[in-house]
Amino acid sequence: MLANAWLPALQSLPVGGAVVNGTSEADWPAVADMAGRHSWVVPSFGLHPWKVGHESKLWERLLKDLLVAHPRAGVGEIGLDRWIQPHDLPAQIRVFQSQLQIAAELDRPVSIHCLRAWGALRQILAESKLPKRGFLLHAYGGPAEMIRDFEKLGAYFSFSPAFLHPTRTQKRELFLHMSPERILVETDAPDMAPPEEINPFPMDDGEGQPLNHPCNLRTAYEGLAGLLKMNLAELQPLVHRNFERLFTERR
């Protein structure tokens, strides 16, 4: 992503802290480097379900070594995905459970991706040892009736600016069922861009296609505040406390 284009705008918002996820072994050095250059970056290292099957034989050792070397780091983005084709759910589950175990041993926050595998995810989380600080279900789009179960297990849920598209009313309304102390905000950049008409920082990928980027945190905050009928002065400290509790508090 063209950091020179969005980084100055991001710093002017301002952003006190944000998680930057690595999704494969190839990403992990870049995330570590970014965390070393920007104090607001909380690094996270994980093997995404889309990358399962391409990992090295030493990936677990490399992951654990990185986490030990970066005491602020979380584990993510990891999870389950039955949307991508082809998929090998048993292999995804093995990799996911291994990473949950590492996160629990080190009490590191976990960022979880899930598509079309909510029942399997709930069962695994219920049967696994989890980090005491909890875990994040990013861009939550699961069933409303599972929200309380996930909260009891330690879940937080992040609101994406992509949920502001007119066709995603149901995903927005899920956040009306969540405990306020469990809500966070995300961009999932460079994916899941907000509607162009409400994007104060429009960018493209050089070929005319909309490009999501971290400055769209502002759009996500504004959209979530409107949904929850709160003003930004109320929402920002709430999200800040939730973020600190999950990602940055020392235990």
Offer a concise description of the structure.
The chain has 251 residues and is α/β, with parallel strands linked by helices. The protein has nine helices and seven strands.
For the record, the CATH architecture stands as Alpha-Beta Barrel
- Output the number of helix runs: 9
Distance between the amino and carboxyl termini: 34 Å
Fraction of residues in β-strands: 5-15%
CATH-defined fold name: TIM Barrel
Secondary-structure-derived class: alpha/beta
Please indicate the count of domains. Answer: 1
Unreliable segments of 5+ consecutive residues: none
The main pleated sheet reads as: 7 strands, parallel
SSE pattern: HEHEHEHEHEHEHEHH
What gross morphology would you assign? globular
The CATH superfamily title: Metal-dependent hydrolases
> Order of strands side by side in the largest beta sheet?
1-2-3-4-5-6-7
Number of beta-strand segments:
7
Assembly of the depicted chains: single chain
Let me know the average pLDDT: 93
Radius of gyration: 17 Å
Percent of residues in helices: 25-40%
CATH class type: Alpha Beta
Features:
single chain; 251 residues; 9 helices; 40% helix
Notes on the structure:
The protein is α/β, with parallel strands linked by helices and 251 residues long. It has a single domain (18-248), classed as Metal-dependent hydrolases (TIM Barrel), CATH 3.20.20. Helices cover 40% and strands 14% of the residues. It has 9 helices and 7 strands; from the N terminus they run αβαβαβαβαβαβαβαα. It has helices at residues 3-11, 28-37, 59-69, 89-106, 118-127, 147-153, 169-174, 217-228, 232-248, and strands at 18-22, 41-45, 74-81, 110-115, 135-137, 155-159, 183-185. The protein has a 7-stranded parallel beta sheet with strand order 1-2-3-4-5-6-7, with helices on both faces. Helix 3 (59-69) runs parallel beside helix 4 (89-106). The chain is globular. The model has no long low-confidence stretch (mean pLDDT 93).
